[in-house]
Amino acid sequence: PSVAQIEDQVLLADAECRRLGLTTVHDAGVPGPLVEVYRRLIDAGRLQTRLYVMLHMPLDRLRPFFEKGPVVGYADHRLDVRAIKIGADGALGSRGAALLEPYADEPGTSGLMTTPEADIEAMTLAAAKAGFQTCIHAIGDRANRVTMDVFERVARAVPGARALRQRNEHAQILDAAEIPRFAALGVVASVQPTHCTSDMPWVPARLGAARTAEGAYLWQSLAQSGVVLASGSDFPVEEPNPMLGLYAAITRQAPDGQPPAGWAPAERLSRAE
Question: Residue 115 has what DSSP assignment?
Fold first, then answer.
């Protein structure tokens, strides 16, 4: 797309966010040139939504941003560029999420790491040294273990890394051993409640009944462990309306009210939570 087309798309998204009452969004995966588009539209007074940007690029292209350091509070707090995004594994629906044990409905695969562990650690380490938060997409229990292992090693290697509030994006399928590590390491569990209610018809087939019950979408278990639990929509994968996320988190039901008692209701969150 041309620069003009990109600007038009950004402004359409800006209008939709404001229509829904969103004042700030976290943009989870931004190439370097888009940062300049955002800055230009903000300077011109055309972009109203405040943006928290996660850069998503190979390490060699991230280094110039690391050398300049984080952007915090630009233009009266309209733009922050102080985070990076890394994808550790694929998605559960496509059997691309990296699992510790094979898929129940396709025993020949246990998913895949889309970024090698050594590369995840190198980017997280470089980001921490430069004062950037790292946000790692982790769906499967194997990817979540790798993610937490990386955060633990980087916290030991870089004084102050914990204060950056590292983020596990999705924390979707967890082995029980991983749950207490979030609070112990100060890692934010950034979850998307509508993923659960979108995925619930087929998750038991992918994981089997026992693994689903023990490890899938464990919001209440995480909350009880003392973790900082953050909820988002993951739009445009899901709808951006935050009310849908609140509904899913509280009811564990699809928008049509099914199942009547909620799916795995013990993991629901209260309105206050």
Answer: S
